[in-house]
Amino acid sequence: MKILFTGASSFTGCWFVRELCAAQHAVTAIFQRPAETYAEPLRRSRVEQVAGQARTVFGCGFGDDNFLKLIEQHGPWDVLCHHAADVTNYKSADFDVARALGNNTHQLPKVLAALAAGGCRRVVLTGTVFEQDEGAGSEGLPAFSPYGLAKGLTAQAFRYYAGQAGMQLTKFVIPNPFGPYEEPRFVHYLMKNWFDGKKPSVKTPAYVRDNIHVSLLAKVYAQATAAPDVGPGMLTHVHPSGYVESQGAFAQRLAREVGPRLGMACPLELVRQTDFSEPRVRINTDVPDAAAVGWDEAQAWDQIADYYRKMYGR
Q1: 73 burial class (0-12, 13-18, 19+ CB within 10 angstroms)?
Q2: 283: buried, middle or exposed (CB in 10 Å: 19+, 13-18, 0-12)?
Q3: Contact indicator for 5, 20 with CB cutoff of 8 Å
Q4: How many CB atoms lie within 10 A of CB 250?
Q5: Angle at Cα 17 formed by Cα 301 and Cα 235, nearest 5°?
Q6: 3 with 81: CB under 8 angstroms?
Q7: pLDDT of residue 233
Q8: pLDDT digits over 175-203, tens only?
């Protein structure tokens, strides 16, 4: 298939492009900024990986004039994979929902009309389990944050306009991915402390979350993108699930897996949690068939251990 992909400089995006290309799809990945502006080492390494696998177009943002020209001049396209999203200051309570919705859906009717005119009949939109009314869990499934709210509203806009254009919409909902090339988040925090010979504290061990290897997530994404069409105007959901357990239990799992591989102690302190400002439980519900997508769990843990070993030079 000929795939137009947005958001390839992100952690999950670079992995998704890798698996789509491995499945022999012709992927064109767009990047909003000029190539030389991707200078931060982690993001630059992702961009370089994508450039070695897919066709890249820089200075092209979703819905802008360059994007519309790309659709019209280099089509026809089989699938639009819209993985990009406005994440500016995404952890803040002051995250601008209206701005993010506008950027995520910029000129969306024109984009879908141009794609449909060339014969494209499918859109794969990335969502998050932290949106309102996604996944399964507690507290009535509210949005976790203004960022989650913006992602949910983005999905609603896509659903409406894809239906108007007679296109099938597949919503691919991401839980908590982890693995090589991720930002310094929970797993990175634990790994860095262990390499420094310290005992990290897990401050939210009671939250039940859904942590999934990014390598497995990417294989499921490629499978979902190539799934048979179900008809114009139809909506399908994919909710891939990984390790459903408390954050404390996941931290212990990580220690059990990487400790022997790295030959070092991985101690943990599970702090008694008192802050429950987020929903206690939020998970996905579709357990992937690892064999069917060609994924090996032990190999995935090996990749993580090797990645952090190289990062810290030990």
Answers
A1: exposed
A2: buried
A3: yes
A4: 25
A5: 105
A6: yes
A7: 82
A8: 999 999 999 999 999 999 999 999 999 99
Cα dihedral sign, 148-150-151-156: positive
Let me know: does 137 contact 175? Beta carbons within 8 Å: no
**What is the length of the chain?**
314
Locate 163 and state its tokens. Answer: 């239906």
Between CA 265 and CA 271, with CA 268 as vertex, the angle to 5 degrees is: 170
- Residue ranges of domains in the chain, CATH in brackets: 2-177+212-238 (3.40.50.720), 182-210+243-312 (3.90.25.10)
* Relative orientation angle of helices 186-195 and 297-312, to the nearest 10 degrees: 60
What SS3 class is residue 81? strand
Burial (0-12, 13-18, 19+ Cβ within 10 Å), 106: middle
What mean pLDDT is reported for the chain?
Answer: 96
pLDDT tens for each residue of 30-56: 999 999 999 999 999 999 999 999 999
Q: Where are the alpha helices (DSSP H) in the chain?
A: 11-22, 41-51, 65-74, 97-104, 108-117, 146-164, 186-195, 214-225, 247-262, 290-293, 297-312
Element (H, E) at 122: strand 122-128
Position 228 scores a pLDDT of: 87
Q: How confident is the model at residue 234 (pLDDT cuts 50, 70, 90)?
A: confident
In degrees, rounded to 5, the angle at the alpha carbon of residue 271 between the alpha carbons of residues 267 and 276 is: 140
- Segment 248-267 shows an average pLDDT of 97
First-residue to last-residue Cα distance in the chain: 42
| Residue in the structure block whose two tokens are 């001049």 | 73
By the 8 A CB rule, do 173 and 181 touch? no
**215/294 Cα distance (integer angstroms):** 10
Buried b or exposed e, range 293-303, using 16+ CB within 10 angstroms: bebeeeebbeb
How many angstroms separate the most distant Cα atoms in the chain?
59
